[in-house]
Amino acid sequence: MPELNLVLLGPPGSGKGTQGERLNEDLRLPYYATGDILRAAVRDETELGRTAKGYMDAGDLVPDEVIVGVIAERIDSAEALDGFILDGFPRTTPQAEALDAKLVELGRGVTAVVLIDVGDDEVVRRLGGRRTCAANGHVFHVDFNPPKEDGVCDIDGSELIVRDDDKPEVIRKRLNTYHAKTEPLVAYYDQRSVLRRIAGESPPDDVAEEIRRTLATMRLEQDEAV
Ligand code: AP5
C-alpha cells in the first residue's frame, strides 16, 4: 500500500479534531494535531508552551518558525514512514512551503488535503458548545455530541472543560485569522491537485463517511495512474 500523507484543513471548529480521531483509528497512521501539541506544551510549562500561550489565548497563530520544527521532527520519525495525518498544520503559506520542502527532502509529498467546509455561523455555534477533555483532549458538544454524563469524558472519565480560546471574542478573532492566513492554502493545494472538499455541516458520521469515500476513490485513481 503506498504511503498516505494526509492534511486536514478547515476553519476552527470545522471538525478536524473530531474526524482526525476517527481517521487515526481507521487508518492506523500517526496523528499530529498542532493545537493538541501546543496545549500539552502549555500544560507542561515547557519553553514551547511558554512561547505559544499568549498567541493561543489571543486567537493568533504562533510564529511559523516555532511550529515548523515541531512538525518536521515528527514527519521525519520512524513511526511516520507509512504516512501521517496532520491537523492544524500547515496554517500559513510559509508553513505549507516548509512542509513541501521537508517532504521533498525525504523523497515524499502530500498525498491529499481534506478541506472540511463549514460556514462562520456554524463555527460560532459549534465552538460555543464545545467541551474538551482536560486529560487527553477528547472532544464533545453540549447539543451535537453530548457526553453520557454531564461534564465527564466518556472515554477516560476526566473532567470536561471549555478551552480558553473558545470564549466568544476569541472565536471571532480565530475566524478572522483563518480567513486572512489559512484560507489561501485552499488555492495553494488546489493548484497542486491534492485538494478534496468535504461538506462539513452534515452530522459527524456523514462527514466521516464522505472522507472515507473520497480517500478510497483517490486511492483507486492513483492505482489506475500507476
Ligand atoms: P487548534 O486546536 O488547531 O484549533 P482550531 O484549528 O481552531 O481547531 P479547533 O480545535 O478549534 O476545531 P476542530 O476543527 O478541530 O473542530 P472539533 O473537531 O474540535 O489550534 C489552537 C491554536 O493553536 C490556534 O489558534 C493557534 O494559536 C495555535 N496553532 C495551532 N496550530 C498552529 C499552526 N500550525 N501555526 C500557528 N499556530 C498554531 O469540533 C468543534 C466542535 O464541533 C466540537 O464540539 C464537536 O463535537 C462539534 N462537531 C464536530 N463535527 C461536527 C459536525 N459534523 N456536526 C456538529 N457538530 C460537530
Describe the protein:
This protein has 226 residues and is of the alpha/beta class. The chain has one domain: Rossmann fold. It has helices spanning 16-27, 34-43, 47-58, 64-75, 93-105, 120-128, 168-182, 184-191, 204-225, and strands spanning 4-9, 31-33, 83-87, 112-117, 130-133, 139-141, 160-161, 195-199. The strands form two sheets. It has a five-stranded parallel β-sheet with strand order 2-3-1-4-8, with helices on both faces. Strands 6-5-7 form a three-stranded antiparallel β-sheet. Helix 4 (64-75) packs parallel to helix 5. The model has no long low-confidence stretch (mean pLDDT 94). It binds BIS(adenosine)-5'-pentaphosphate. BIS(adenosine)-5'-pentaphosphate binds at residues 10, 12-18, 34-35, 38, 55-56, 59-62, 67, 88-89, 91, 95, 126, 130, 139-141, 144-145, 165, 174, 203-204, 207.
Please outline the helices and strands.
Layout: E1 4-9, H1 16-27, E2 31-33, H2 34-43, H3 47-58, H4 64-75, E3 83-87, H5 93-105, E4 112-117, H6 120-128, E5 130-133, E6 139-141, E7 160-161, H7 168-182, H8 184-191, E8 195-199, H9 204-225
Parallel strand pairs: 1-3, 1-4, 2-3, 4-8
Antiparallel strand pairs: 5-6, 5-7
The structure holds BIS(adenosine)-5'-pentaphosphate.
The site of BIS(adenosine)-5'-pentaphosphate has 34 residues, from helix 1, helix 2, helix 3, strand 6 and helix 9.
